[in-house]
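Feature request, filed as a ticket because there's no other form

It would be nice if the structure record came with a short human-readable summary line next to the tokens. Right now we just get the raw output. Example of a typical job, pasted below so the devs can see what we mean:
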Amino acid sequence: QVQLVESGGGLVQAGGSLRLSCAASGSTFSSYAMGWFRQAPGKEREFVATISRTADNSLYVDSVKERFTISRDNAKNTVYLQMDFLKPEDTAVYYCAAKDDRWFSRGLYVRGYDYDYWGQGTQVTVSA
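Raw output as currently delivered:
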């Protein structure tokens, strides 16, 4: 079992930055590939970024490339999403997710149903 708690969301003007954190507890964090997803009002949940459990491989949705950076600190059991040059269309609830990936070191996962555990989400609002 893994418990995930996101933090760092808030209200920011377009062009600004936020750093989301997701703290994990309850299991061996380094066994899990991690992902960030988001869901805007009236829209389906969308993949944002994923990072392998060894932190040497990552993948982003095209709309956030060159603006967002996913990272992790396995010693602190935390995954981060640095969001720069934010746009109003980035407004959403952001969720982190964990997938048990102990048999692979560089696995990346973009589908929500690949993940085993989810956090409660944190709201990000970008004003124009």
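Something like this underneath would help us a lot:
The chain has a mean pLDDT of 96.
Residues 4 and 24 are 5 Å apart (CA to CA).
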